[in-house]
Amino acid sequence: MTTEMTRRALLASATLGMASAAAAQDAATKEADKILVVGVSCSPRKGKTTATAMAAALDAAKAVNPRITTELIDLGGMTIAGSDGSSSSGGAAGVQDDFNKIVPLLQSPTLGGMMIGSPSYFRSMSSLCKAFLERLAILREPKLQLADLPVGALSVGSYRNGGQELVIEQILTVMLCHEAMLVGGKPKAHQGATLWNAYKDDITQDEFGMESAKNLGIRVAEAALKYKG
Q1: In this predicted structure, what is the pLDDT of residue 229?
Q2: Range of the structural domain that residue 141 is part of
Q3: Does residue 6 lie within any of the structural domains?
Q4: How many distinct structural domains can be found in the chain?
Q5: Cβ-Cβ contacts under 8 Å for 178 (sequence gap 6 or more)
Q6: Residue at 141 is within a domain
Q7: What is the mean pLDDT of the chain?
Q8: How far apart (Å, rounded) are the C-alpha atoms in residues 8 and 50?
Q9: pLDDT reported for residue 31
């Protein structure tokens, strides 16, 4: 009786162990099957219009497919120095700053797409955006780590025609240096998402702009699915 009970207990334990191992493997497989789309808000104003627009783009991206996961990187309040010309340095004069906290996410094996957003300042990207893009040089060595990655851009301006498309062009031009796959939006904002801050920082009131942000998120998510297979 005791021997039989021991045998049954061992069999039950072995079965439970196999089931646990199978469940763990299944969970690991599902995790590996995830596709990460990152949105970077390069406005010095944390949580304001650019970040809100990017969040909307990420929500639209996530709704495309259950495999899509998203992460918003709001650079507002962070300190990011421009490049000192060295692709392997920590920044200007080797300063260690907040950019180093972002790198692991950009090197994630599940990264399948990225969106970069900036306010339009005097019809150009923000200095924070420029610094962020310069520091991406670290991802060019020893190989182009962002090559073929789907990348889209959005911009927020104080006027409907406040240089948003110029900012998008500047961002995407930099990403060409990484041999990224550039992704535009849908009609009527083919270059990317263009938003107008005409409502005292409530960017959600710009229906056209918010729609362009959502469309950009959809396009990047669709491209990320193709990129990851």
Answers
A1: 86
A2: 34-228
A3: no
A4: 1
A5: 136, 139, 140, 144, 145, 146, 147, 149
A6: yes
A7: 90
A8: 62
A9: 73
Any domain includes 163? yes
Gap between the Cα atoms of 52 and 36, Å rounded: 19
pLDDT in tens, 35-57: 999 999 999 999 999 999 999 99
How far, in whole angstroms, is CA 86 from its chain's centroid?
Answer: 24
Q: Is residue 125 domain-resident?
A: yes
**Angle between helix 127-135 and 99-106 (nearest 10):** 60
User: Does residue 19 surpass a pLDDT of 60?
Assistant: no
CATH number, domain of 88, equals 3.40.50.360
3-class SS of residue 180? coil
Percent of the chain with pLDDT over 90: 78
Spatial CA neighbour of 43 closest among 152, 103, 158, 125: 125
Mean pLDDT of 165-186: 97
